[in-house]
Amino acid sequence: DGGITQSPKYLFRKEGQNVTLSCEQNLNHDAMYWYRQDPGQGLRLIYYSQIVNDFQKGDIAEGYSVSREKKESFPLTVTSAQKNPTAFYLCASSIGGSTEAFFGQGTRLTVV
Amino acid sequence: DQQVKQNSPSLSVQEGRISILNCDYTNSMFDYFLWYKKYPAEGPTFLISISSIKDKNEDGRFTVFLNKSAKHLSLHIVPSQPGDSAVYFCAASQDNDYKLSFGAGTTVTVRA
Q1: Chain B residues within an 8 Å CB radius of A103
Q2: What pLDDT score does B47 carry?
Q3: Of A40, B3, B65, B96, which residue has the fewest beta carbons closer than 10 angstroms?
């Protein structure tokens, strides 16, 4: 089945450690995205990539990094510079702009 | 600065009745609008969209209305069913822009 796979579903890390969240899609979509959701808030865009080997900062990119070496994969690294990393992280993909984005099941990251 | 606003954090409706969810936006450049449905600990799923050249789009029990002059859109669900109980997000983007701006969401509870 086509879709977006995020792993793991739950992740715990100690404060000060970097952590990488995985996102893979087999929808053959050019664009991929990372969003963050906090309680009572909408989804906020962290980074997005329109095409392989290219990515742009979203609204809250500080403390995060990404890579897009393959069309299918868009991993997100939460660095120790991110001040409030505990959140629900969502990866998405789309054919292009002004089209619906399809989301993965999310990764809940808890930093202790 | 939140460009998409859902001012009602929650809505309770009786099964079989109409659910009306509202969304306002401030960016007059937005021309593509979407509604997503989200269950706890899952990724959002796309429901319905509308472009600015239309004022109404219908898909089964779901209808989205767009009032560009008022910068307002609404989602009607008729008839409401227990499985509709979820958080609904409104989202918007500019022409061919890859970035989606999301509202904070409205939690719908359908009572039996």
Answers
A1: 36, 43-45
A2: 97
A3: A40
